[in-house]
What does this fold into?
Amino acid sequence: MGAKPVFSAPFFNEFVVQLPKARRRHERALERGVLAGVALGDWYTELEEALLICATEVHSADDVDRLVEALRT
It folds into this structure.
């Protein structure tokens, strides 16, 4: 799908990925009932094509698969 990490530093629960057409993918995921992180372009113009994603122990493997599938298109 073309997602790439934006920062190389270690992370705990939250990370930023650059994704082609990130805002459109984010909006489509919301339409499907999936909160696909936060589109960062509103606050950081240099991160227009980036999403802040958070995954913790409360998210199952199925949740992660659903997120990936929602962002795929």
In short: The helical segments are 22-31, 61-72. Residues 44 and 50 are 9 Å apart (CA to CA). The chain has two helices and four strands. The longest strand covers residues 14-18.
